[in-house]
Amino acid sequence: MKNYRLLSWNVNGIRAVEKKGLVPWIKADAMDVLCLQETKAQPDQLSEALKNVPGYGAEFCWGERKGYSGVGTYSRIKPVKTERGLGVKEFDGEGRVLVTHFKEFVLFNVYFPNGKARAERLDFKMRFYDAFLKTMQAYRKKGHKNLVVCGDVNTAHKEIDLARPKENAKISGFLPEERAWIDKFLEADFIDTLRHFDPSPERYTWWDMVTRARERNVGWRIDYFFVSASMKKNLTGAGILDHVMGSDHCPIELTLRF
């Protein structure tokens, strides 16, 4: 049997979190795979230390606009292949999707859009959601049964997933249509891995920095690991690493056994 430990973290700027000790943390933690979102950097803006962490291969997907969006995946396991994007130009120009094929599963590292800025961005977000679900269905048709999806989904699913649901009922990130998409995604044979293991409240992954909400744990759970229902037997654990600082998000964790 083989064990995998996967981590996902919206770092809100990879260069900013590098200054707070990202590389030593990766070395000390020894995770098998680390998926980062909102890296906000193109390859020529990355230091050699970020591009060449000892023991890890690194792949990045970046947006056309500098200092915006972007994802990166570090892995101690050599992938079969890596792909970028959904194949839809308007979405792929923002560098939001990195797909890593491993022997046992296909991993999607995704930074889903935020819809708070204006109505056009909410529409963009919902269309991205729909395009992503179609991509998952297409992968299944190609014979890929074991799919792992991680990243910042930018939506809290249930009332238990944020500290103040009533106050945020009309705010993007907790709108009925956004939450309904997560329902639809789970109904398409995916598992919310944290809730598979942990039904407890006050399990958050993002806190507003301006109001120092982390100190009071007034947060949102908007970062997820989803897996195909076919992988239920492979799940050994899922959690939130809220002791890890450096961003307005904290890392989340998934462990698998094959």
Descriptive report:
There is one protein chain. With 258 residues, the chain is of the alpha+beta class. The chain has one domain: 4-Layer Sandwich (Deoxyribonuclease I, Chain A), CATH 3.60.10. It has helices spanning 14-18, 22-29, 48-51, 89-92, 119-141, 176-187, 193-197, 213-216, and strands at residues 3-10, 33-37, 57-61, 71-75, 81-84, 97-101, 106-111, 147-152, 190-192, 206-207, 219-220, 223-228, 235-240, 252-257. It is globular and about 45 Å long. The mean pLDDT is 97.
Series of secondary-structure elements, N-terminal to C-terminal: EHHEHEEEHEEHEHEHEHEEEE
Going by helix content, strand content and strand pairing, the class is alpha+beta
Which parts are unreliable, with pLDDT below 50 for 5 consecutive residues or more?
none
CATH architecture: 4-Layer Sandwich
Which SSEs are present, and which pair or pack?
Elements: E1 3-10, H1 14-18, H2 22-29, E2 33-37, H3 48-51, E3 57-61, E4 71-75, E5 81-84, H4 89-92, E6 97-101, E7 106-111, H5 119-141, E8 147-152, H6 176-187, E9 190-192, H7 193-197, E10 206-207, H8 213-216, E11 219-220, E12 223-228, E13 235-240, E14 252-257
Parallel strand pairs: 1-2, 7-8
Antiparallel strand pairs: 1-14, 2-4, 3-4, 5-6, 6-7, 8-12, 9-12, 10-11, 13-14
Helix pairs in contact: 5-6
